[in-house]
Amino acid sequence: MITLRKKRETFQLKVPSETKNLEIIRSFIYRTAIKAGFDSECASRIELSVDEACSNVIKHAYQMKTDNFIEINISIDKEKFVVTIIDQGKGFNPEKIELPDMMEYLAELRVGGLGIYLMKTLMDEVEYDIIPGKKNIVRMVKYFYALEE
Amino acid sequence: MNGFEVKRKDLGDVSCLYIKGFLDAHTAPVFEEELQKLVDEKRFKIVVNFKDLCYISSAGLGVFMGFIEDIRENKGDIKLTNMTPKVFKVFDLLGFPSLYEIYDNEEEAIKKYNLAE
After folding, report:
1. A19 near B CB under 8 A
2. pLDDT by residue (tens digit) across A30-58?
């Protein structure tokens, strides 16, 4: 069932950039997605995508330094569930990200680099906004209409 | 909640690892260490029982990818069993079932090792 929502709702979580906090992040995302009206399978997809994005922030943007923060914002309106993940770590050029060809990936027994592939596969939209020296923003969208198909 | 746990049981030359909880970027090193121990002991016939694993991310999948080549070069394998539908979906999404043998239960996986001898 989709909750009828007249106005936009927002939720926020800010946690230190430590892998042990991934469990808290996942719980926040999953519960909010269920409350918004997604079924368990869809909520799990959003949960995994956000885990992948935050794991990348901890590993690549903050390079495992734990004295930083990850900010996670959720915005829900009548048509979509939007998760925005913000960090102040090292930036990157999103145009240089190449999605792996999974057939080749498996045949060559490669390791790593599957996070962004999962995010792009599981979410309807994934966008990056890199402001060098200031912050990096990952915005991921899941539309409710897919539930009605 | 329950984090992650890994228990081991050796049955002849096959080693079974029972993984429980969440396998993510935080807990993957614990699982990696346990697989490394098996490799160091030259125990290459491995079964991983997923019965109590409720979550896996790419960091967890990466552990399997990190060991499979070395283990297969030593005439071993990592066979997977008792996967919940939620965890299987992540494996399936990435095409991993084409690379790893997945069985309904541990006995079937062990039987496969014994038949190959």
Report:
1. yes
2. 999 999 999 999 999 999 999 999 999 99
Q: Which residues of A touch B58 (CB under 8 A)?
A: 52, 55, 112, 114-115, 118
Three-state SS across chain B?
A: CCCEEEEEEEECCEEEEEEEEEECCCCHHHHHHHHHHHHHCCCCEEEEEEEEEEEECHHHHHHHHHHHHHHHHCCCEEEEECCCHHHHHHHHHCCHHHCCCEECCHHHHHHHHHHHC
When pLDDT is averaged across residues B52-80 and rounded to a whole number, the result is 96
Residue B114 amino acid letter: N
A48 contact B CB<8A: yes
Domains in chain A with CATH codes: 9-144 (3.30.565.10)
Tell me which DSSP letter residue A67 carries.
Answer: S
CA B21 to chain centroid:
14
Q: Which tokens sit at B7? A: 């228990």
CA distance B65 to chain A (A): 6
Q: Does B68 touch chain A (CB under 8 A)?
A: yes
Tell me what percent of the residues of chain A surpass a pLDDT of 90. Answer: 72
Segment B57-86 mean pLDDT: 96
In chain B, what are the domains? Answer: 4-110 (3.30.750.24)
